[in-house]
Write a structure and sequence with these properties.
Elements lengths: L4 E4 L9 H16 L3 E4 L13 H12 L18 H6 L2 H11 L3 E4 L3 H6 L1 E4 L2 E4 L10 H9 L5 E4 L6 E6 L3 E6 L7 E3 L7 H11 L4 E5 L6 H11 L5 E5 L2 E2 L15 H6 L4 H9 L14 H7 L10 E2 L2 H14 L2 H15 L6 H8 L8 H10 L18 H17 L5 H15 L3 H13 L8 H25 L1
Parallel strand pairs: 1-2, 10-11, 12-13
Antiparallel strand pairs: 3-6, 4-5, 6-9, 7-8
Bound molecules: glutamic acid (GLU).
Length: 483
């Protein structure tokens, strides 16, 4: 069997959309599952869409996500250059287009803007130009003359107007279209650059790509690509078109809803491993119900024959859950390193951030969750004394006032504010009085945090904020409760 070769062929137009990341991942997994090669090709022939810095984003994203390419602009594998504008400069695309012209499979078209404008028709509410093959009837001599006198031109594919073309996609099956629907698409633009439609075929062939993995927006053009392969006498690759990704409302993903690009997700506090894991499941699922996969496991288990045709829903709730699972599984050092910038956003005093990080690790789904969870360490928030009432703990404002008033002098006399010492101290009080733990711990925790939910218990919080601040907060509580 031929060695599997796939490619990721992004256009350098900005941040990497999750749809593109999924394409890259699937192309990588299909190759690696079979011990094949994964190539990176830069498709920069649309010079108007080029965005400064986009190349760096592509390299960085592939590196961070672990989708290491075997060949690419920075790793020569003998079929380069791997950047389309460089291939264009070598005259490669024009050479192949001319070959098709020779064969009668393509032709020069000199129609100007005005003429094309007049061909516009409305199809399904959209204005499109269906070219009428006007220039196909030009004689060889007429073409030569126009070329010699520098009339601007494009080169178009010459598609039949009757009969059908069938192509086969490994996910979507056989698709047959009427040839009358295949417009004579442009292969070489008036600026001399090839279109995506032409360059992808030429490059995939020359680079020995066996499996073309891409978004399903290219599905409808694939019959035309097949005609190009056949016109050249080249073997048609295996097509793997990936299903659409939608948001929870089954609409196109948008930047507004916050799930547009890999970098956006990282900025929102998601972990790379979780994003990759999540994206892998947008259009594919394993035979069992496993949901958490390392990249290595994905390589082992990914079988593109089990990809789905149905649109995949980008479910942020699920991504958050998954991210939380990755957080829990992370070792404490790594977590601390990543959590630190968030902790420092709200905690400026001399706290033991390491301890606080350990407290929140199992309680968050994304890093920004940290902010709300720990801000009370820095400053006691305004709170309502209704919080002292807790049915299960059998506490209310009166019992709380009594316990806090009782304990204030005890806590003032205590010097060791370590969690262990404080806990032992409070336990002694609990036993002496014959109370239940919560009856004492609840009012103290409420007093020192001013919050209903905290990432740690009363004594752990007191250890972090220290004696002076703890006493201050308990006095505030007593004052509030005495009113
Ligand atoms: N440059 C195209 C894109 O970014 C690539 C499509 C393909 O993978 O063939 O959409």
């Amino acid at each position: 069997m031929k060695k599997v070769r796939t490619r990721f062929a992004p256009s350098p137009t900005g941040r990497m959309h999750v749809g593109n990341l999924r394409t890259a991942l699937y192309a990588y997994l299909i190759a690696k599952h079979e011990g094949g090669d994964f190539l990176l090709r830069i498709e920069d022939t649309d010079q108007e869409r080029f965005v400064e810095g986009a190349l760096e984003i592509i390299y960085r994203t592939l590196e961070k996500t672990g989708l290491v390419h075997d060949e690419g602009p920075d790793k020569d594998g003998g079929v380069g250059p791997y950047v389309q504008s460089e291939r264009h400069e070598q005259g490669l695309y024009l050479k192949y287009a001319k070959e098709l012209v020779e064969k009668g499979e393509a032709y020069y078209c000199f129609c100007d803007k005005d003429r094309l404008e007049s061909l516009k028709q409305e199809v399904a509410g959209k204005e499109i130009v269906v070219y009428d093959k006007h220039c196909l009837s030009l004689s060889k001599q007429e073409v030569e003359e126009k070329l010699a006198s520098g009339v601007p031109y494009v080169i178009r594919q010459n598609n039949p107007t009757s009969g059908t073309t069938t192509f086969s996609d490994d996910i979507y099956g056989d698709i047959t279209v009427d040839n009358s629907e295949l417009d004579d698409m442009i292969l070489i633009k008036s600026d001399g650059y090839p279109t995506y439609n032409f360059a992808n075929v030429v490059d995939d062939h020359l680079m020995g790509i066996t499996h073309v993995v891409r978004g399903n927006e290219y599905l409808s053009s694939s019959p035309k690509y097949n005609r190009l392969y056949e016109a050249f006498g080249w073997e048609v690759p295996t097509y793997v078109h990936c299903p659409l990704i939608t948001n929870e409302e089954h609409k196109k993903l948008s930047k507004r809803s916050g799930h547009s690009s890999y970098e956006d997700l990282i900025e929102q506090g998601f972990l790379t491993e979780a994003v990759v894991n999540f994206v892998a499941l947008l259009g594919w699922s394993p035979e069992d119900n496993q949901e958490i996969f390392s990249l290595k496991e994905l390589i082992e288990k990914f079988n593109y024959h089990h990809m789905s045709k149905a649109p995949a829903v980008f479910d942020v709730v699920k991504l958050k859950w998954m991210n939380g699972e990755y957080m829990k599984a992370m070792d404490s050092d790594t977590f601390f390193e990543k959590a630190q910038p968030y902790l420092k956003k709200v905690l400026t005093k001399d706290f033991d951030l390491r301890k606080i990080a350990d407290m929140v690790k199992t309680r968050i789904e994304v890093f920004p969750d940290i902010l709300e969870l720990v801000d009370f360490f820095e400053e006691l928030p305004e709170y309502d004394i209704a919080m002292f009432t807790h049915k299960k703990m059998k506490t209310n404002t009166e019992t709380s006032l009594e316990v806090l008033t009782d304990l204030l002098p005890v806590l003032e006399a205590q010097d060791d504010y370590s969690n262990d010492a404080l806990y032992a101290l409070l336990l002694r009080y609990v036993e002496e009085k014959g109370y239940k733990n919560g009856y004492v711990m609840w009012p103290i925790r409420t007093a020192v945090s001013g919050k209903q939910m905290t990432p740690a218990g009363a004594t752990e919080i007191m250890e972090i904020i220290g004696k002076e601040e703890s006493i201050k907060r308990i006095k505030i509580a007593i004052e509030k409760l005495s009113k």
